[in-house]
Design goal:
Blueprint: E1 2-6, E2 16-20, E3 29-39, H1 43-46, E4 55-57, E5 62-66, E6 74-75, E7 81-86, E8 91-96, E9 107-108, H2 121-130
Parallel strand pairs: 6-9
Antiparallel strand pairs: 1-2, 3-5, 3-8, 4-5, 7-8
Protein name: SET domain-containing protein
Pfam families: SET (PF00856)
InterPro entries: SET7_MeTrfase, SET_dom, SET_dom_sf
């Protein structure tokens, strides 16, 4: 149902994104990404690595690194997918927020809520660079 391909939206070193290989209906489960959770006080070590950009809040006292395709979904303020944290299964469950056509890149809002337009860390960094 999904595959990793080159994305024009990602300006990072790897330029990857997750794309639909088939039409996906609104509300349909797209992917269950397993997580590696760790206590927030350990995040200072992750901040020194490339993994910092791939860490998600995982409850009040933990952060998590997503595995599977979970780490590769790109950001949009107008996403076509959303996710729920499934603490019982230790997964982030990604769902279609809208109908998604085969070939479309699957995008989530990194702020967690589809309507949250708060600037993200990488947008703030770009603004600082502009001066």
């Amino acid at each position: 149902m999904i595959e990793v391909k080159t994305s024009t939206l990602s300006d990072g070193e790897f330029n990857r994104g997750v794309f639909a290989t088939h039409d996906i209906k609104k509300g349909q489960l797209i992917h269950e990404a397993p997580v590696i959770p760790y206590p927030n006080e350990q995040h200072v070590h992750i901040e020194k690595t490339l993994l910092e950009d791939y860490a998600f809040e995982y409850g009040i006292n933990h952060t998590a690194i997503l595995l599977g395709y979970g780490m590769l979904f790109n950001h949009s303020y107008t996403p076509n997918a959303t996710y729920d944290i499934n603490f019982t299964n230790h997964t982030f469950d990604f769902y279609a927020y809208t109908d998604i056509k085969a070939g479309d890149e699957i995008l989530i809002n990194y702020n967690g809520d589809v309507d949250d337009n708060e600037p993200l860390w990488f947008n703030m960094d770009k603004e600082l660079e502009k001066g």
